């Protein structure tokens, strides 16, 4: 059955509210991709950073976790997104009870940045900081923190499959609802900037020298980003729904995608089949679009084979950065925002932001530009979107999201 995506909370490099993120997307803003000198071990890198001032919105009295330990950056991002859905959750918790509320969070970094800082002090002084505890960097920490915020007593856990983590969290939430193990699930992803990821991807020769340029001829890599994106998912009908989802694993290589996009294509086809739609019926596809040579090449092939050359598509990572474990939920959330009449009354879609010319050697796909967007909005309202997330090891997921009357 389709599952209702009842509400959405988001914070990323584009802003800390649904309205701010939508405005940035439709303006093609790159303001959140900033040059960082602190995280890289060597040359500065562009990252998608949430401004420090954003964290001033942390609620008084919630500066620590239930053990009295300082919140990690991951927890803080999660709290900022949670506050945007709290009013929607309150009556649902009252109706169904805390035992019927579940939490599923996708992440790949958790609180590892605090582990990095603690280890640095340990090496310098011989002692860990007083406010540090190993649990701060465990994968399940943010999920439990969010559960504590609303006193959820149903299943609470994390999923960590690299860049597909939070897309898979939505599918896991769907399974909990369909199995009647919960009536409401808070599902999404949270990942924060850390030296581990910024320098790790640099070591893999995967980071861009400038702001990332998805699908451009001169594309050379990604910008690591951070985000929190949380959905309230229920069994209700109507509104914006998760219509279809499919997961595949092509297992072609530890860190490189299948060159022909074999697993990516099967994920897209499976999601379309579950949604009972043809590829040509999708109004917009939010591509994984990392800006690496191999990803964009294989994804263009998969997109062409799944949806043809007419369906509008593009990457939004040129505005948010690649938010790793949060990317699946963030980009599904971008589709949710585009489908929502309050946030996108003109039914526009974001352009594929890039500084370079489109790579004409790629399979022919209809990357969004200003002209194509104007032509689409003159024809019809947005009804259905697809979101792709592809991870290391060929760990793929595609989601179809649409309006249901």
Automatic annotation (TrEMBL):
MF (Gene Ontology): 3-oxoacyl-[acyl-carrier-protein] synthase activity
A single BP term in Gene Ontology: fatty acid biosynthetic process
Enzyme class at the top of the EC tree: transferase
SUPFAM superfamilies: Thiolase-like (SSF53901)
One cellular-component annotation, GO: cytosol
Enzyme Commission code: 2.3.1.179
Keyword field: Acyltransferase, Transferase
Pfam families recorded: ketoacyl-synt, Ketoacyl-synt_C
Family listed: Belongs to the thiolase-like superfamily. Beta-ketoacyl-ACP synthases family.
Name of this protein: Putative 3-oxoacyl-[acyl-carrier-protein] synthase II, fabF
Annotated source species: Moritella yayanosii
């Amino acid at each position: 059955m389709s599952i209702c995506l009842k509400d959405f909370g988001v914070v990323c490099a584009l802003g800390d509210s649904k309205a701010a993120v939508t405005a940035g997307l439709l303006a093609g803003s790159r303001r959140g991709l900033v040059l960082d000198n602190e995280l890289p071990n060597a040359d500065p890198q562009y990252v998608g950073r949430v401004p420090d001032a954003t964290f001033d919105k942390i609620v008084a009295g919630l500066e620590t976790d239930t053990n009295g330990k300082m919140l990690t950056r991951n927890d803080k991002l999660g709290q900022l997104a949670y506050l945007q859905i709290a009013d929607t959750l309150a009556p649902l918790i009252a109706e169904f009870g805390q035992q019927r509320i579940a939490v599923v969070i996708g992440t790949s970094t958790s609180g590892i940045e605090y582990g990095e800082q603690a280890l640095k002090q340990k090496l310098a002084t011989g002692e860990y900081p007083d406010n540090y505890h190993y649990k701060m960097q465990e994968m399940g920490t943010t999920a439990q923190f969010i559960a504590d915020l609303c006193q959820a007593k149903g299943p609470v856990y994390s999923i960590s499959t690299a860049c597909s983590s939070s897309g898979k969290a939505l599918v896991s939430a769907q399974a909990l609802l369909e199995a009647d193990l919960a009536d409401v699930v808070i599902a999404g992803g949270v990942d924060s900037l850390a030296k581990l990821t910024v320098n790790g991807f640099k070591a893999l020769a995967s980071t861009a020298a400038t702001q990332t340029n998805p699908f451009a001829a001169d594309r050379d890599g990604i910008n690591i980003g951070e985000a929190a994106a949380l959905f309230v998912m229920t069994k209700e009908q109507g509104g914006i729904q998760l219509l279809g989802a499919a997961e595949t694993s092509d297992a072609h290589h530890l860190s490189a995608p299948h060159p022909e996009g074999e697993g990516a294509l099967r994920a897209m086809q499976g999601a379309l089949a579950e949604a009972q739609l043809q590829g040509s019926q999708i109004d917009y596809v939010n591509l994984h679009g990392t800006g690496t040579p191999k990803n964009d090449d294989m994804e263009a092939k998969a997109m062409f084979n799944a949806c043809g050359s007419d369906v509008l598509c593009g990457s939004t990572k040129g505005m948010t950065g690649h938010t790793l474990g949060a990317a699946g939920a963030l980009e599904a959330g971008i589709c949710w925002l585009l489908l929502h009449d309050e946030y996108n009354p003109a039914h526009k879609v974001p352009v594929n932001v890039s500084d370079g010319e489109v790579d004409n050697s790629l399979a022919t796909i209809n990357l969004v530009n200003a002209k194509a967007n104007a032509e689409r909005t003159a024809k019809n309202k947005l009804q259905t979107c697809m979101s792709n997330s592809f991870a290391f090891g060929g760990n793929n997921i595609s989601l179809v999201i649409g309006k249901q009357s």
